[in-house]
Design brief:
Helix content: 40-55%
Number of domains: 3
Largest sheet: 5 strands, mixed, barrel
Radius of gyration: 35 Å
CATH topology of the largest domain: Gyrase A, domain 2
Distance between the termini: 31 Å
Strand order of the largest sheet: 4-6-5-11-10
Number of strands: 13
Length: 587
């Protein structure tokens, strides 16, 4: 009989010690990272740790304004607001046609959160009096990036030109305005040649005309002191800038051009967000300028906008710009070349589709006749969450105990391998969940606990598949060591297919659902991946090592691998054919 090839022998005789050492190192490293970060327990969601649940009902004088698009825009705005409070696990989602549910976990000022999410977005158009980079070196001067052109209504051929640009530098002596990059839809426009003077970025803007109502605000020493001290790269200063500013007074504000933070001195409100009748993102296929945002004003709003743009067009940069301010933050600050009359305008500047839609949503939401009334506020106490958590853990413990009892009764000695594998899987799951809390904001809620409980059965199923393959090999008359190696390829395929189906279901569930159901899907997917890791790097190597012992390899009756109790067939033996006698005559 030919000897097996060297390559096959090496692949069959794996080195289980390396795999066991590898997974042990991984557990030790992850555990060390958990203690080093100080996060030794998983973050708990609102249903376990407690918190506040707010139900908001949309109200409007125009019933048609309460539609899916406007509600989704409101959710985006509220999400941004609660995240600004430092809440990473808050949930904001629609319920039905006119309700929005906001779940805020424990540790957040619930009164402040209610004030933030329950108010309509505040959108204003303010003239820019002064601007400068803030919190770092100015971004490098870019190439021209776009333009904004008003399109007066009633004249299809007329298209007066106006440009929109972010304010980067201001030179008090040079009449030519300067600008910096257009990115992320924060600012749009055509960058003009800038004076490279070192003082350009921080020098006060050119002296405005005496008729401008913002002259007094520019000269106000208190406002100038606020502007000089403002650092928009600091989160606290950025959030406080312009907070609760009066519409009729000048104020300071922050904005962002790409990676560069900008600070502004803004004049009194010239146009209110409610003066915008409609804003939408459109693809300009005629001129090839790409995506743009169009704004239609109400009758009164169109007159206000024409007046402010006419005043701005006569001034120097950055005082020829108007800032679009949403919730006290400058989201765009285009500049104007001439008065924009007719009641509508366009903003363009190398927008992507998403950037244009985001800007149009912000403009639209600030203009909506849509307010929200608190329908209910529910406080979820920590005591209730603790009871739910204890109930979930009790259910998991009962399920685990039943699985262990079944394994002991049916597989006897093999149950030790299964229990050890379950403990390794549980340790990895716990440590990784603890680390994912500060890393990605993962919070363990009750559905996530249910996902972990379901995973116990999935993990145990993988062990059972492998054990049954080994027992089948023993029934065919093979000894344990060859049976372990021959059973693994077939069991491996079955385990991978089963886990792939579970992971696919978890991934689809995570994508198509929202809120707490995503916690269930995420936990199920995570534990499914860990099941593959444990079976490949712990269960199989441990089984290979134990097959060399007398207890398992000898087929002890309590090992779960006793050939007699499994009804094993006797091994096939080759017999020689009897040699026929040779006739001497024939010889």
């Amino acid at each position: 009989m030919a000897a097996p090839k060297k390559g096959r022998k090496a692949s069959a005789q794996s080195k289980p010690g390396r795999s066991l050492a590898l997974i042990l190192i991984a557990i030790v490293a992850l555990t060390g990272g958990m203690f080093a970060t100080g996060h030794t327990t998983p973050r708990l969601g609102i249903d376990l740790a407690g918190g506040t649940s707010i139900t908001l009902e949309a109200r409007s004088g125009q019933e048609s304004a309460i539609n899916k698009t406007n509600m989704n825009t409101a959710v985006d705005i509220m999400n941004r607001r609660v995240n600004g409070l430092g809440v990473s696990e808050a949930e904001v989602q629609t319920q039905g046609d006119r309700n929005i549910i906001v779940n805020i976990p424990k540790g957040t000022n619930s009164k402040q959160a209610r004030d933030q999410v329950g108010t309509t977005a505040k959108l204003y158009f303010r003239p820019v009096l002064q601007s400068a980079p803030s919190g770092g070196a100015p971004a490098p001067s870019p190439s021209p990036s776009g333009s904004a052109s008003p399109k007066p209504s009633g004249s299809a051929s007329a298209s007066p030109s106006a440009s929109a640009s972010p304010s980067g530098d201001a030179d008090g002596d040079e009449a030519t305005p300067s600008a910096s990059a257009t990115t992320q839809g924060r600012a749009v426009g055509e960058a003009l040649k800038a004076d490279p003077s070192p003082s350009a970025s921080t020098a006060p803007a050119a002296t405005p005309s005496a008729s401008a109502p913002a002259d007094a605000a520019t000269d106000d020493s208190k406002l100038q002191a606020q502007f000089a001290a403002l650092d928009c790269s600091d989160v606290k200063q950025r959030d406080a800038a312009g907070k609760n500013a009066k519409a009729g007074a000048a104020t300071v504000a922050c904005g962002q051009d790409g990676e560069q933070w900008m600070k502004f001195v803004l004049g009194p409100v010239a146009v209110d967000g409610t003066d915008v009748d409609k804003a939408q993102a459109l693809l300009d296929t005629q001129s090839g300028a790409g995506w743009k945002v169009t704004m239609d004003f109400t009758g009164a709003g169109g007159k206000k906008f024409a007046q402010i743009t006419g005043d701005l067009a006569t001034k120097q940069s950055p005082q020829n710009e108007f800032a679009i301010v949403l919730d006290d933050k400058v989201i765009s600050h285009p500049y104007v070349r001439q008065a924009i009359s007719g009641g509508n305008a366009e903003i363009s500047g190398n927008f992507t589709q998403q950037e244009a839609q985001d800007l149009s949503n912000m403009l639209s939401y600030g203009a909506l006749p849509l307010t929200f009334k608190e329908a209910s506020v529910t406080t979820v106490t920590a005591a209730l969450g603790t009871e739910q958590l204890h109930a979930g853990l009790l259910a998991g413990a009962i399920g685990l105990a039943l699985v262990v009892i079944y394994l002991v009764l049916y597989y006897r000695g093999l149950s030790l391998i299964a229990v050890a594998s379950l403990l390794v899987s549980a340790a990895l799951t716990y440590v990784i969940m603890s680390l994912l809390g500060p890393a990605i904001g993962f919070a363990l809620n009750l559905p996530a606990v249910c996902g972990a409980i379901v995973a116990i059965g999935i993990t145990a199923d993988s062990f059972i598949v492998y054990f049954e393959r080994i027992r089948d090999e023993i029934r065919e008359g093979r000894s344990l060591r060859p049976a372990v190696e021959r059973a693994w390829p077939r069991a491996r395929r079955t385990i991978l297919v089963s886990d792939f189906v579970s992971f696919l279901a978890a991934a689809v569930l995570f994508i198509v659902t929202v809120g707490k159901v995503q916690g269930f899907a995420f936990t199920l997917g995570l534990t499914t991946v860990l099941d593959v890791v444990v079976v490949f790097f712990f269960t199989k190597p441990l089984m290979t090592i134990l097959a060399r012992t007398k207890f398992f390899g000898g087929g002890h009756k309590w090992s779960g691998l006793d050939p007699k109790s499994l009804g094993a067939q006797p091994p096939l033996r080759r017999t020689r054919r009897p040699v026929a006698p040779v006739d001497p005559k024939e010889a």
